[in-house]
Specification:
Radius of gyration: 15 Å
Helix content: 25-40%
Order of helices and strands: EEHEEHEHH
Largest sheet: 5 strands, mixed
Structural class: alpha/beta
């Protein structure tokens, strides 16, 4: 996959995206960590399939460019990607001890976690 840096205003959120993100926490993460993964964009429409809220947070922070990976998919495939991206992360669990060990070794700034 090829990552591109594009004008943030050239993209649009996916119409009807059912997910509601925590823009405040995403802004904190962008400020602390920068963008460490690209958002996923449908090549033909420039709709954001994964990363709608990260894009919104970056816009609110005044970013002019954002890193993307474009996928050449039809509209049905695009909807499946949106549905998958919104749901699959929710299905995971944590090993609580490993999570605690990880968090004890770092500053919590920009992670979405607090003490």
């Amino acid at each position: 996959m090829e990552y591109l840096s594009v004008d943030i205003n050239s993209l649009e959120t996916f119409p009807g995206n059912p997910r509601r993100g925590n823009i405040k926490k995403l802004k904190e993460s962008l400020e602390a960590n920068g963008q460490y993964k690209p958002i996923v964009v449908q090549k033909s429409t420039k709709y954001i399939l994964a990363g709608n809220h990260l894009w919104q947070a970056a816009k609110e922070l005044g970013w002019q460019l954002i890193d993307v990976v474009e996928v050449d998919v039809n509209n049905t495939q695009a909807k499946k990607i949106v549905a998958s991206d919104n749901r699959l992360g929710e299905l995971g669990t944590y090993d609580e001890q490993e999570l605690l060990d990880l968090l004890q070794d770092i500053s919590l700034e920009g992670t979405g976690y607090d003490s």
